[in-house]
Amino acid sequence: MRLLNRMSRYSHGVSKFKLTQPRMLWLDHRLTLSAAPRRKRQFTGVKSSAHPAFPLCSPGLFVSVLPCSPLRGLSILCPHTRTVTHTHVAFASSSAASTPTPAGQVKTQADTEGEQTSTTVPLEDVKRILKLAYPERWKLAAALGFLTVSSGVTMSAPFLLGKVIDTIYTAGADTETMTASLTSLCIMMTGVFLCGGAANAARVYLMQTSGQQIVRNLRASLFSSILRQEVAFFDRNRTGELINRLSADTAVVGRSITDNLSDGLRAVAQAAAGVSMMFYVSPSLASFVLLIVPPLAALAVVYGRYLRSISKSTQDALAQATELAEERISNMRTVRAFGKELSEVNTYTEKTDQVLKLARKEAVLRAGFFGVTGLSGNIMILSVLYKGGLLMASQHMTVGELSAFLMYTFWVGISIAGLSSFYSELMKGFGAGSRLWELLDRKPEFPLNEGLMLSADQLKGRLEFSEVSFAYPTRTEAPIFQDLSLLVPAGTVMAVVGPSGSGKSTLVSLLLRLYDCNSGTITIDGHDIRDLNPYWLRSHIGTVSQEPVLFSYSIRDNIAYGAVDPEAVTTEEIYGAARAANAFNFIQDFPNGFNTVVGEKGVLLSGGQKQRIAIARALLKNPKILLLDEATSALDAENEFLVQEALERLMTGRTVVIIAHRLSTIQNANAVAVLDQRRIGECGQHTELLGNRQGLFRKLMEKQAFLQVKQKRALR
Ligand SMILES: Nc1ncnc2c1ncn2[C@@H]1O[C@H](COP(=O)(O)OP(=O)(O)OP(=O)(O)O)[C@@H](O)[C@H]1O
Which Pfam families match (predicted)? Predict the structure, then answer.
């Protein structure tokens, strides 16, 4: 995994990494392999093929590396830069192929953090970060100017303060001269300090505002990139992970370009200026003090490495705890219904205990380090005082110079500490950046708004599946359809029935082109849906699912969501759609009427109410094709009647594919298709199918009737 990630980080140019064990590599066809001539004989079996775990991926090269000849120093060159991601390269041990990262799965925080601790930052990442900052270049340049002024003032302060001390101590009995010199020196210094304060305030303001602007731009592009991805991408990636990219990683990147960079530059400038001033004030004392720095720096490097590995483990443990909390809180109703609050609290506590254990380890380490550095700092000051005192006694140094030197020592110490935290923050920024680039660069597998658009006259609504085979990209080994064919003439109602899990909803997903079939074609009025503009296609298809999802807006906004331009929808149109959906009366009964906010996913409404609002939303779209998933037992008799009536109104004059559960719907449909064994087992009129005693439909109906009787008996 780490090798895969490392590869992806180098995917924008020539990539190199070292293999330390015999491996079998699968390379995307865009990658080429190179190695020193004497190593070439170690590659065998180069051939173009698809990876076994990803039969649908573009073919690549399989390269076996002889198990008996460990290979080191292998280079992989990827000349076609931007499109290559780690999913195109898979590593497996020479004996057994391991499971590679599924195509399109984004790197997790833990992945990139692990990677960040052990590698240097590629130039390409630096360029991208700088490119992000480019629109804010003038503000940032001004901020850097102010930074120079404020740092200059800070670093001149010890020198000037030294002068003040010398003025006080060397004036002797001439108090008048001393007062005059002291007053003018203090007035001058007040002016300098005022300039420094103003420059610092301006720097902070400019850095903060440009940082926020960069984060805003990043978030907008990232959200747009996420929403463009195909549905299969969301099957592979956890929502929490994507939200984390959008909120936390963007902020980290923004901060590393602005605040961290400015703090880092300030630390470098101050450390350099401080050391120079130390040598200026007293070269012999400076050489003596700086002898202590190298061992301290070595300690800091060792400590930094160890601390990073512990913080990574802490972060991993924390991520697990957060993941658990996120899932349980968002499914609180299920937790409550099963009475699992206490056991969930215990599970969460166990996870947080793990975090605590690691955090304690980290605390011990930090305590040791800060103890040692604090001690070294004090020893350094003591040495300056000791050696400085001796120099003063031999008239080689004044009291003001010694005071100034002490202050510079202090500043250099602070700046070096600032530099170490700057480095770790910068690394965090690059880690977050590489996760963001991956998402930002990802091209969706099919376009959102490209392709053929039919005119209103051309669109009749004839749907046809011809020998369609399909497996979900996340489960390629389990095909849902094989050579499935089905024709739905324009303006007719096709009821689809079949056992649970037979693929009824999948049929709807394929029509909406949420996924592409692996072979065969799906056509609308003779046009392959892959040639049609997906955005146009979906704007002419209405859907009402069994559990419709509403957004946490008002009822009015939820209904208007169905229209192409929700802003342009009039109140009359919304009322009309609500009336046709049998929703008007219950909405008006709410104290806030159409302005009632429905809560997250419509949680504040009943199942039947949600269904009717979803029907109103679909009505407002006025689609030519309707895909319905009929609500089942969730509704009571009255609601069922109201929803049914609304659905019938919605279906008039359109081509409808309905996943039917009720006998009445099946009876009213023009034809019934029975899904069985990954294809349409039977298709025909309801009475015709019932007439076939050995037929699938008849058996399915008999089974359903039997189950209903059993259920009624159990209820009695
Ligand atoms: N996003 C997905 N990724 C992988 N497999 C999926 C996905 N969605 C559904 N499946 C699988 O595809 C098969 C068909 O599911 P589908 O929801 O189409 O069945 P269904 O006939 O509508 O079932 P039900 O009547 O229970 O709603 C099931 O085995 C299901 O586990």
Answer: ABC_membrane, ABC_tran
